[in-house]
Amino acid sequence: MQAPYLTELFKNQSYNPDHFFLIAGPCVVESEELVMEIADKVSAICQRLDIPYVFKASYRKANRTSAGSFTGIGDDNGLSLIKKVGTTYGLPTTSDIHAHEEAAMAAPFIDILQIPAFLCRQTDLLVAAAETGKIVNVKKGQFLSGPSMKFAVDKIKLAGNEKIMLTERGNTFGYQDLVVDYRNIPLMQENKVPVIMDCTHSLQQPNQTSGVTGGNPQMIETIAKAAIATGADGLFIETHPNPAVAKSDGANMLRLDLLEPLLEKLIKLRKAIK
Q1: Distance between terminal CA atoms of the chain?
Q2: 80: buried, middle or exposed (CB in 10 Å: 19+, 13-18, 0-12)?
Q3: For residue 107, how many other CB atoms are within 10 A of its CB?
Q4: Rounded Cα–Cα distance for residues 190 and 86 (Å)
Q5: How far, in whole angstroms, is CA 128 from its chain's centroid?
Q6: Which of 59, 2, 49, 1 is nearest to 26 (CA)?
Q7: Integer CA distances (angstroms), 130 to 8, 47, 88, 135, 219, in order
Q8: Domain extents in the chain
């Protein structure tokens, strides 16, 4: 997708709009050591493979199954560490916001404001994000069709911001599973905005009686390949050196050492399609 704001976003990296870009990082900021390790390794991989890269991490997890789940190390600490990653490695960064008052708070620290799927219809949140002038990436709700995301795009544009991305992350299928309808990728691209496939959250298995969301990480490659085959502009992948000990969403994250071989396969697939 040709978009001038993507060219600006990746000004410090090699960017070809015919290729896919990557948004990747841990689910949440757990520590400085963790975010720096992941940023260092993923940025090096992406430089080798010529893939534009956005570092992602939540500074706070507001939507957790259990009241006892880890939510973060504090907003100021989390946001400061995300900004440090961007400065240290010359990377654009992103994190999610959950209420309209968070938009202005987070905007000085990150380049892309992400709107969580459950909140994609919250008008005041979308407008507040738009008014910061940052790129706004809206995740499609698990309860919405691709075409219905037109209304989220319209809300942001009416607030004076044309810098929009949309992310597919599956639809609710029963109580404890999600399914990806790949028709949503070209349908959302009809809004003339980049469309991203969330390859990890689309494999969540929510509503577990344990109070911890499950997942199917063994299917990440399948989801990613299908997304590239259907023309996704970017991929969103949460990754961790040891998902088994991750403090959030470990059940559906990609182990960090598996990222490079996966990206190599996806590059070959993209070239074959193009």
Answers
A1: 13
A2: middle
A3: 18
A4: 31
A5: 19
A6: 59
A7: 17, 30, 27, 8, 34
A8: 4-273
CATH number of 4-273: 3.20.20.70
Of the candidates 219, 157, 220, 149, which has an alpha carbon nearest to the alpha carbon of residue 190?
Answer: 149
What six digits make up the tokens of 124? 């005041």
Question: For residue 265, what are its two tokens?
Answer: 């396969």
- Using the CB atoms, write b or e for 218-231: b if 16+ within 10 Å: eebbebbebbbebb
pTM comes to: 0.93
Please list the pLDDT of the chain residue by residue as tens digits (274 residues): 779 999 999 999 988 888 899 999 999 999 999 999 999 999 999 999 999 999 999 999 877 566 667 778 999 999 999 999 999 999 999 999 999 999 999 999 999 999 999 999 999 999 999 999 999 999 999 999 999 999 999 999 999 999 999 999 999 877 778 899 999 999 999 999 999 999 998 986 665 445 555 566 789 999 999 999 999 999 999 999 999 898 877 778 999 999 999 999 999 999 998 8
Q: Are 94 and 138 in contact (CB under 8 A)?
A: no
